[in-house]
Amino acid sequence: MPLSREDNDLLTRVENGAPMGAMLRQHYWLPAIPSSKLEAGGRPYRVRLLGIDLVAFRGPDGEVGVLDERCPHRKASLALARNEPGGLRCIYHGWKLAASGAVVEAPNHTGDQERFCAHVRTRRYRAVDRGGIVWAWLGEGETPARFPELPFVDLPESQRAVTSVQVPANWVQGVEASMDSSHVSVLHESSTQVTAGAGNQRLLMNKAIAPRLEFEERPYGYRYAALRPAGDEQVYARVNNFVMPWYGLICAPNPGGPSTVFFSVPVDDVTHRAWFVHFNPGAPLGMTNMSASPDVWNFPPLPPGGPEDNWGQNRDLMKRGHATGFPQHLGTEDFAMFISQGPIVDRTDEQLCSADGAVLRVRQALLRSVREFQAGQVPTLSDSPELDYRRIRSVGGVIPAGSDWRALCETA
Hints:
This protein is α+β, with helices and mostly antiparallel strands. The chain folds into two domains: 29-137, Rieske [2Fe-2S] iron-sulphur domain (Rieske Iron-sulfur Protein, 3-layer Sandwich), CATH 2.102.10.10; 157-411, Naphthalene 1,2-dioxygenase Alpha Subunit, Chain A, domain 1 (Alpha-Beta Complex), CATH 3.90.380. It has ten helices and 18 strands. The mean pLDDT is 93.
């Protein structure tokens, strides 16, 4: 069923006090920047989350911090600041801010400088470095939101790879795609063939056969199985998980191989940062197209053109058999779809089908949570007593027709 315009705005908008942005800010940690981008004592990086301009940095002692970008004094950018022991020093007048957000020096103020600094108003954010990502909690109060202890968070660096890129489209477009199983065999037909190795079970997906979807509600969101006939009274089952508010945990393409977590974090109303975490709980990743990324802050690549040339689609390559004309990366194919939908999709006149059940459940979970927040409640999916991020598993496999796909999850 299409959304009303009011619900579409409630679902998608995060800036200027929008309820969704306020809920995300208070009840979730936000990925800010890949850990590897921050050098101890090195340059601060500009980061934008939920329409808020920030800087992220790592002090000479290794401590990470996330601050408002503008110095509280005369609003110069702290991306230009000197990174010194104890904090960032604004190069305009020398004010120094600790990683906690507190002003600790104001050398151009006469009188009791310590007393003056203690009364300067700043917003103070929590920041942690976990799983190859620097995360920020932008909420209010002394007790931060529950940290998402996802399966990759405590793995050694050799068993995970983190990349990210900014995409000019609303964040929900990316989240919906992470749970849209029926697009994989169509949009990614060629990229799957190019990257397929021995045992890649994604090759069992037949784009001519619609998957049958079965769902199960979970404390963090839901999981679902996309079931496809695999011949000889067998079924190929792909069990993926949606974890509030934006995580899509996708099963490995072959048993024992690396899985992927896709997440689309809102930069502002019409921009999001797409994150890819490629990880293997049981073995080092080795060399993959993610671990070999030339720039973890700008990968996978965006489509190479704009709407005037169909976003750089290569029609000559399509004549030679490529399904989409975007050979750069699987993610590039997704980004082309998000961008072509427009900055914010108008969901009031879309026409959905049986394959869209997982997409609908993403919207339902988000809308239910933001309405709970509007009612003054802690959203159930953000802090349920049964919530255990560490136990979430996304798996795939060939099973006998008629058997229960949940057995795959229990043996993973």
